[in-house]
Amino acid sequence: MQSTGLQACAKHYIGNEQETQRNPSGGPNTAVFGGVPGPTIEAVSSNIDDRTMHEAYLWPFQNAVHSGVSAVMCSYNRINGSYGCQNSKTLNGLLKEELGFQGSYVMSDWAATHSGYPVALQAAEAGLDMDMPGGISFFSASPSFFGGNITASVNNGSLPVERVDDMCRRIMTPYFRLGQNTNYPPIDASSGGLNFFPVTNYLYNFTEGPANVDVRDDHAALIRELGAAGIVMLKNVNNTLPLKTPANVGVFGNDAPDISVGLYLDGDPDLLNIGYDQGVLPVGGGSGTGRMTYVVAPLDAIKTKVFSYNSKALVQYVTNNTEIIHNKIFGAMINPTPPEVCLVFLKTWATEGYDRPSLQVDWNGSAVVETVAASCPNTVVITNSGGLNVLPFANNPNVTAILAAHYPGQEVGNSIVDILWGAVNPSGKLPYTIALQESDYSFAPITNSSALLKTTDPNAWQSDFEERLLIDYRHFDYFNESVQYEFGYGLSYTTFSMSTATVTRVASGGSISAAPANNTVAPGGNPALWDVLYTVSVSVSNTGSVAGATVPQLYLGLPQPANEDYTPVKVLRGFQKVLLAPGESQTVTFSLTRRDISYWDTFAQQWIIGSSSIGVLAGFSSRDILSTTSFSPLTGASAYGASSGSASSPSSSTAGGYGAPSPSPSTAGGYSAPVSSPASSTVGGYGAPSPSPQAGYGAGGQGGDKGGPWHWASGENGASHWGSPPAAVRQ
């Protein structure tokens, strides 16, 4: 992104893992978010332990800082009691100091700077450089928590002018570094009236360029390509797909037709609350939406495709879900019946955030599938969700194929048709696990309850991350639980094989030390953490009859450190998409840095390489493991147990030793799992509620990060900072 002169911003920092109560409710500023004023109930606090923070939630932000990202946006929620935009530990201690986030700035999410005295001093000292959108309200630059309050704080000596200089340098450095002062497009004159701030409230007369500049170029082709690349084929019985030349095609479901409510999903506030029934959902809403210039609906693209090979073909359709469910459409509306293939398009509308109630609507999508499949033995489902909504029909024998299309963009219809008729071979892989039932996700619940919704306790919303490192596939693999479709899963129209993995030491010199050298911090942290110590290579072959892409994935089984929380059975450390012609092979090499093979030692406050061997597991999903070996960084490489094979059916296999539930402690993949569950165990600190002593970030309540040096604190509603707890409570 930044090669074009555009500033990239990594967000939302950090622990922003649920929408419910992400902002405070009640209080004098509730109207900013459309709520009713009342007692201030603080935003949810994500309570995260030290090791989990480093190995899970801080990890991608460390990647971004190492890549030179221009800005980081702090989040609405609290982290261990302190708001994300005024939490000195996360902003100063972790981001700016430990990760070396220099020459770049921290901006707030819109209205994520919260009340308290004095806010300007508190947030600025905690590391916030830019308060957005400037005013307390979305619509006016004043009053502001920054602005004149910054000036007053400097004048009365409570805020050092050096800190203000630092804020200014951080904000302006990317501007000059990326050449935005000399060669950057001017502001489009049409954009002013489209933003939250009315032009009349501007504090600066910007120099505008021409209005409605068309910068689309050939982007439509790329959008179409990327839309198809992100589609995951979950099911394909008896090679139902790709379609050949069916002459009678049925199209069903409310996600098939064109949009009837306009091309800007934030243009009507009601859409955020209730969604829309008729029309495809090509993109998300809210801050992630875009202003589309057109949409190719699936129904239109299907007609174009079918008539391109048979001008006398039938394309029959009913897109009203209620009509499909409650009336006998087959024989009356759909005739001849059944069609050769029935394409069912489903969507799920979900909205949450600010003070709006949670909403998820699928317009009875599973009932639509059930109704169509009862009369059509060749039913193909295309869903924009791909999550739990596929479970009711995943094992329906008349549902012969399922595509998780997600949000393909404005070329949605063309992207899906490219997959359905085989112009593009599906290569998308699931970036999440689809479990067998909703309760399987209960190990990491969303914090919410009727009691919390009615609470008068300002600090009642506490989300304790008791699952620690065991999120998504790490949980299901650790406890050897069966799933419907695993992390990294996705089918293809061809087949692939993988050779034995080869581990090669790259680091020169003698023995490798457990801890990195004590170097001066650079962007990304200690530069030694980014030293490539090993590479893992596999050869991937297309053993089928058509060209296709696949994504070889590298997982590591890191050793369990002593006196630490449970370590996942395996963690993803590399993936790469490769396009192969039939019979073609290609070697894929994954680089392993020191950080990749280390764990965060909470007592040493350092990344440490464990003393035991590290397992290497390569395959095409988290459970389709085709090659395993190991190496021992501290004692020299010692590969053993290497194996390789061809791809099997991930959804039904136990490749790599996973997939079958077991009543006894599992040793899946060669790594021993303890008998008890983290939720009920006290090993490594599991099961301790948030009021109990724990090493944490920030301060409790509204007080900000003002408790002095980071220390172990217990029994107080104040500062409770990171650090090593006393030996007596380490367990």
From TrEMBL:
The keyword Secreted applies. InterPro entries: Cellulose_deg_GH3, Fn3-like, GH, Glyco_hydro_3_C, Glyco_hydro_3_C_sf, Glyco_hydro_3_N, Glyco_hydro_3_N_sf, Ig-like_fold. GO terms for molecular function: beta-glucosidase activity. It catalyses: Hydrolysis of terminal, non-reducing beta-D-glucosyl residues with release of beta-D-glucose. Residues 642-655, 665-683 have a biased composition (Low complexity). Its EC number is 3.2.1.21. Pathway: Glycan metabolism; cellulose degradation. One of its GO terms (cellular component) is extracellular region. One of its GO terms (biological process) is glucan catabolic process. Residues 17-28 have a biased composition (Polar residues). Keywords: Carbohydrate metabolism, Glycoprotein, Glycosidase, Hydrolase, Polysaccharide degradation, Secreted, Signal. Residues 697-707 have a biased composition (Gly residues). It comes from the Eukaryota. Residues 550-622 form the Fibronectin type III-like domain. Its main location: secreted. Residues 17-36, 642-731 are annotated as: Disordered. It is found in: Secreted. Belongs to the glycosyl hydrolase 3 family. Beta-glucosidases are one of a number of cellulolytic enzymes involved in the degradation of cellulosic biomass. Catalyzes the last step releasing glucose from the inhibitory cellobiose. This is Probable beta-glucosidase G. It comes from Friedmanniomyces endolithicus. The lineage of its organism: Eukaryota, Fungi, Dikarya, Ascomycota, Pezizomycotina.
